[in-house]
């Protein structure tokens, strides 16, 4: 066993088991596979004072009973605050993923106030943390300058056993998709499309694509099970990303793992990730340019070299777990009370 780490995410308990983001569960599993003793728990109420206090009490008891050497909050905002309050004297790592540092463009004054307060609370916790992880370089620059020296850029890794290239015809057969129909994948960000994903631009782009391919379809991924997403990535013609902003979008790296071409706007770290991936394109937030890029990908008809690039960039779940393991090793045994100076 390499050591013991306590991971804290956001989510809910279902039949007593924590249910959180798939990437967080993948990160926990990859650390276990590497040899770490991992406990994954969560904050299931981030909006009420009473709920947050209840979570802190429970987490404090869970951390004490786990024998953890390190506490790692897998998100900023209130999740990081709860982790800091519960970890005692243990070293604290906080991962910032995107919305916890970048302004989330949802409508309403109340939402703006809530996100701003959550952002500031997350920074307060960051001052108390021994190390910070950001998922992309734009998130590093979003941190206050005095915190950047303590941060490392470590994107989420991809489960390359689940997300792997499959024969396109076989994948379409399993899904019941026509071999001739052009299908473009789009991640709407959940059951209710998130404004930051910019669905209107995706729909406008598809309207222009249909001028050349009348039956072309935008396949919404939403909150689909990961196995379904992986199958659709092997069956589709390309992934379309129109986000207003991102950190390191997992959907792009998953598409790379499946050799699915990506057409995207410049957001997050996509320019770095896709610099050597062909075919595919990075275009401006313009429906006509995006549609032209999709048509070029469709007409070429090739799969991308994304899987090889993902491995070369060290972004499989195992490779990322190895980076985190080195970070944990440096922190183990250190006191958890140092502040930024």
What's this model, at a glance?
The protein is an alpha/beta fold. It is built from 14 helices and 12 strands.
Question: What do we call the CATH homologous superfamily of the largest domain?
Answer: Glycogen Phosphorylase B
Helix content: 40-55%
Assign the CATH architecture of the largest domain.
Answer: 3-Layer(aba) Sandwich
Low-pLDDT regions = 337-341
What does this protein structure show overall?
By secondary structure, this protein is of the alpha/beta class. It has two domains: 3-157 and 316-331, Rossmann fold (3-Layer(aba) Sandwich); 168-312, Glycogen Phosphorylase B (Rossmann fold, 3-Layer(aba) Sandwich). It is built from 14 helices and twelve strands. It has helices at 22-34, 49-66, 77-86, 109-128, 137-142, 145-148, 168-175, 199-209, 226-235, 250-257, 270-273, 287-300, 306-312, 317-331; strands at 3-14, 17-20, 36-43, 70-73, 92-96, 131-134, 151-153, 183-186, 217-220, 238-241, 262-264, 280-282. Strands 1, 2, 3, 4, 5, 6 and 7 form a seven-stranded mixed sheet that branches. Helix 10 packs across helix 13.
């Amino acid at each position: 066993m390499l050591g013991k780490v306590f991971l804290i995410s956001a989510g809910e308990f279902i039949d007593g088991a924590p249910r959180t983001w798939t990437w967080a569960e993948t990160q926990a599993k990859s650390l276990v596979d590497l040899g770490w003793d991992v406990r994954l728990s969560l904050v299931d109420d981030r909006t009420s004072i009473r709920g947050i206090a209840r979570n802190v009490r429970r987490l404090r008891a869970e951390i004490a009973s786990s024998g953890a050497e390190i506490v790692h909050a897998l998100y900023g905002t209130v999740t990081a605050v709860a982790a800091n309050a519960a970890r005692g004297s243990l070293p604290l790592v906080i991962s910032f993923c995107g919305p916890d540092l970048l302004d989330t463009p949802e409508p309403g004054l109340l939402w703006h106030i809530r996100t701003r307060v959550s952002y500031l609370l997350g920074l307060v916790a960051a001052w108390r943390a021994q190390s910070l992880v950001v998922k992309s370089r734009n998130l590093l620059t979003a941190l206050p300058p005095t915190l950047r020296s303590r941060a490392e850029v470590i994107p989420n890794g991809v489960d390359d056993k689940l997300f792997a290239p499959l024969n396109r015809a076989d994948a379409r057969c399993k899904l019941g998709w026509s071999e001739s129909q052009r299908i473009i994948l789009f991640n709407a960000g959940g059951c209710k499309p998130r404004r930051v994903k910019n669905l209107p631009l995706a729909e406008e782009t598809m309207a222009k694509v249909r001028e050349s391919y009348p039956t072309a379809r935008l396949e919404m991924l939403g909150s689909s099970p990961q196995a379904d997403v992986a199958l659709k990535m092997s069956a589709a013609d390309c992934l379309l990303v129109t986000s207003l902003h991102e950190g390191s979008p997992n959907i792009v790296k998953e598409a790379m793992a499946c050799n699915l071409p990506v057409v995207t706007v410049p957001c997050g770290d996509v320019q770095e990730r896709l610099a050597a991936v062909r075919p595919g394109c990075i275009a401006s937030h313009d429906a006509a340019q995006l549609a032209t890029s999709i048509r070029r990908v469709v007409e070429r008809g090739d799969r991308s070299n994304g899987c090889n690039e993902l491995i070369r960039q060290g972004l499989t779940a195992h490779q990322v777990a190895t980076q985190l393991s080195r970070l944990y090793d440096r922190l183990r045994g250190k006191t958890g009370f140092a502040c930024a100076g």
